[in-house]
Amino acid sequence: SLGALDFGIIIDGGVIIAEFIALSLNNHYDDANRLHGQERKDYIDEITINGASKMMNSAIFGQIIILIVFVPIISLTGVEGKMFRPMALTFCFAVIGASLLGMTWLPVASALFMKPGKNGEKNVSRVMRLAYKTYRPSIEWACGHKRMIVIGALVMLTVALLLFGKLGAEFTPTLDEGDFVIQPVLKTGTSLRKTIEMTTQMEAILKKDFVEVDQVVSRIGAAEVPTDPMSMEEIDMIIKLRPKKEWKNAGSKEELADKFKEALSVFPGIEYEFTQPIEMRFNELVTGVRSDIAVKIFGEDLDYLAEKAVEIAAQARMVEGAADVIVEKTVGLPQMRVTYNREKLAYYGVSIESLNQYLSMAFGGQISGTVFERERRFDLVVRFLEDFRQDIDNIRQMYVNLPDGNQIRLSELAQIEYSSGPAKISRDNTRRRVVVSVNVRNRDLQSVVQDIQQKVQENVDLQSGYYVVYGGQYQNLKNASTRLMIIVPIALALIFLLLNFAFNSLKET
């Protein structure tokens, strides 16, 4: 995390003290040369102490101001705090350590190792001489045109503030990992056999048509220990790409993703989400969703939630920069529904529990005895053959024993039919919700969310009790921005007070 920071900030106070001590020793070069032995050492020590004492105040105030700058980051909470606070604390500890070193060890080391030198051009590098020749005339001209410089600075500040208001924002920058993760979204209830077949075909297309693809590894469903729960129709296709110099079909990952999606469009009715391995896991761990933006619709009626999710997805697809817009699959799971006729059950004296046992035996099986083979024992399970139980008419024609010893068909006691039911019911804070996942490409996160919000407010109407929340990385960005809007002005006020205390003048501050 510290790799992007200027390490010169850490040693800034020590550099100021060391430079002033060196300048003081050079200014007293002649006086120091007249002395010898212990007197010369005592004289150098005195110059070092005076120089360090004069600059210590400025160095300490400078380091304190740097520490105050990191107060807003240290004050962050939640996910953003866990991500950025360790970096800020590490940097602050480094600055404090460097300050202690500058106040104690540096003056001693300067007195031991620095020697007075004669001021001259030999002591100044060519780069510094060139900088001095360029910088001095600029300063002289600026001092002669103070009003123009102040007005120009105010104009530039105003323009910067106007541009700042139009800038986008992101929670964390997107890094190029060099690999892809494609997540095909198949029809709800797709069998494992069909999922494997389609995944194999997708892998073959990618390997055959794209030289950019080095390896493809797919994962279907959840493992035995479901730390990452996925249904049988959910796939993670991890694609390892070759070095960019070997690419032929595309010049960027965004263009390559579009080419992948076009090549895989031969499979009708399948939506694809493109991301990166680490980015996907990071988003999932931090925000609970794999995409950059999660538009969450909350309410009670799953059918209504699914309907509004489709409308919001249609609006999101119209926004520039919004890619891989996918609606969470919550409905469409094939189910066999059995509705009992309670009047007939009461007439024939049959209980619902006994009918449930018949249905359980037909599909799941029921233990009817035990078979022994020497020391081994096996349960004897009775159930319908696989082909037989696939036909709903066979279930309807199943005979049920009555208390008087007669039999009756199950269809006389219950209505049995296929229907579509919920594939899953997701909740946040005990509230049902459906998620519309959106990834961001070639645009900043905040601008995309703002455009989606505007379109949803204008074109999507929600009943009372239903509402929309924008989550994912945007939620973390919003939380951090809200807190920084409070903490940053406080930090600036503290810096102003410190400068005023240091200069003892409001004008100079």
Task: Give structural notes.
There is one protein chain. The chain is α+β, with helices and mostly antiparallel strands and about 500 residues long. It has four domains: about 1-125, Multidrug efflux transporter AcrB transmembrane fold (Up-down Bundle), CATH 1.20.1640; about 175-285, Multidrug efflux transporter AcrB pore domain (Alpha-Beta Plaits); about 290-330 and about 425-475, Multidrug efflux transporter AcrB pore domain like (Alpha-Beta Plaits, 2-Layer Sandwich); about 335-420, Multidrug efflux transporter AcrB TolC docking domain, DN and DC subdomains (2-Layer Sandwich), CATH 3.30.2090.10. It is about 50% helix and about 20% strand. The chain has helices spanning about 10-25, 30-35, 35-70, 70-75, 80-115, 125-145, 145-165, 190-210, 255-265, 275-285, 300-315, 340-350, 350-365, 385-390, 390-395, 445-460, 475-505; strands spanning about 180-185, 215-220, 235-240, 270-275, 295-300, 320-325, 330-340, 365-375, 375-380, 400, 405-410, 415-420, 425-430, 430-440, 465-470. The strands form five sheets. Strands 5, 6, 13, 14 and 15 form a five-stranded antiparallel β-sheet that branches. The chain has a four-stranded antiparallel β-sheet with strand order 2-3-1-4. Helix 1 runs antiparallel to helix 3 (about 35-70) and helix 3 (about 35-70) crosses helix 17. It is elongated and about 130 Å long. The two termini are about 35 Å apart.
